[in-house]
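Review session, final week

We close the course with one last complete record, chosen because it touches almost every idea we covered. It is Membrane-associated transporter protein, a protein from Dissostichus eleginoides with 567 residues. Go through it on your own first, then we will talk.
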Amino acid sequence: MTLLSEDQSVSSQPCRIPEAGKHITSSLYPQTDFTKETFMESGESGVFGAVEPHRHSRGRLILHATVMFGREFCYAVEAAFVTPVLLSVGLPRSLYSLVWLISPILGFLLQPIIGSASDYCRSSWGRRRPYILALGVLMLVGLTLFLNGDAVVSELVTDKSLKSTWAIVIVMLGVVLFDFAADFIDGPIKAYLFDVCSHSDKERGLHYHALLTGLGGAFGYLVGAMDWGHSVLGEALGSEYQVIFFFSALTWGVFLTLHLFSIPEQPLDKDPSDSGPSRPSALRLLGTQSNGYGALVKEPVSPVGPGPVTDLRPRSFSALGEANSVTSSAKQPNKEAQKRMTFRSMMKALMNMPSHYRYLCVSHLLGWTAFLCNMLFFTDFMGQIVYKGNPYAEHNSTAYSRYERGVEVGCWGLCINAISSALYSYVQRFLLPYIGLKGLYFVGYFTFGLGTSLIGLFPDMIAVLILCSVFGVMSSTLYTIPFNLIAEYQLEEEEQLKLQGLPGLQRGSGVDCAALTCMVQLAQILVGAGLGALVNLAGSVVVVPLSASVVSLFGCIFIAVFIKYVD
């Protein structure tokens, strides 16, 4: 794959238009600059029209969504075993929060850059799938180090003083790599769905994603809850952790492969409508806007030909038409625009995004902060508050036994969460015609906020397990509604451009999905850095569900006031 380099230039060129009746894939996006002032006038800068892809069968959409089953299966395994594995290799408690902070910090800094870079990937396999494959392999490497690091170090290192140090380093590296890749991969997966699907298929595909996400989490928690140490597999493979790794690696490998071959993706530099030499078009580039949302750093362009030619094209993350353009003179070789993705240009682009995109990112941040605040400490809450155990008591004491029992019951509660998430993904489809996307968004946050407040105020075991179902409502909401809103916003942009007399146009989805996904990393940073101090200050983990409730209910108000309504 190649990214557009800094030392390339481009001349003003005609573009190719498709023959009648042929589709243009979603890799052909307008070169549009969406500053706040020019958002409604962006049709002037369009060069390439976009025809909606044809509809896909239910089977292909389900195959595309299977990657979410594998991803969530592995996530559940990590959630169930990360604490015992890290503590078993001797990691000091004072360093435990560092594990949760490294990955989201890297993800928050790099997610939009990778997301927008995938808009320019010119691999013959497509734009998104090379990134998905690379991140999928990285997830598998992290899972391998995380669950097998201690065993491998024990075989290779004989010095006892070095064995513990190397085991901590390898296991921590595995956790960080897995978290980093698993968080990162969501953006390219969603952009892949948006690129290859029609508008109606996007909605169907996101519902299948949510359904299989819930089922994957449920199966992952069930596999983690079983005692594999005394089973035939446990004796054959060596330990319980190796059995869990076997199931996780097999599940992830199979479903990642199914996903990558589910729906063909059109390469960036291949026009399916081009069966012969390119034909010049009467369309000319008229936009003169400055850099804005989705814009790259603009470099000066050298004139080509006998007369001065000024390049008026705005630089956009999703301005992909240049890969399909041809030279205006047979004497000049085809050269690409001078573009370079930098962290500074990425941050500038995100700050200049239209207000409704920015508000959606803020609401997504609030939702994930509330959700992670509750989920990361839920089993500890069950052990200490519901079962009144003590994790610091002697391991043969009654207090510690009660704590362990509470943690086990908490894992079953998380399994209920995963199942309810899968079920609610279907309930959403029936509620959508009545209350709309914004209504579903509000209901998800409100239900979660109300449920977590009741859990914190009335910590009864039966009541808590029943209320675990509201976790699934929030999980399904976070995995589907924001991305559905992105799709609706992009469709609205197309309609606005059509009102200008141009064909329906849209930007690439990479930077939009990446902007949402990096809010998950930012939420992890906030929770990892602040919640532990809040628990220490309060002296009890009962503050965890109450804090989640407050943040979620505040998110309800934010959604009601700021999130843009779409039909």
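Two points worth writing down before the exam:
The radius of gyration is 25 Å.
Residues 1-50, 271-292, 294-341 have pLDDT under 50 and may be disordered.
Good luck, everyone.
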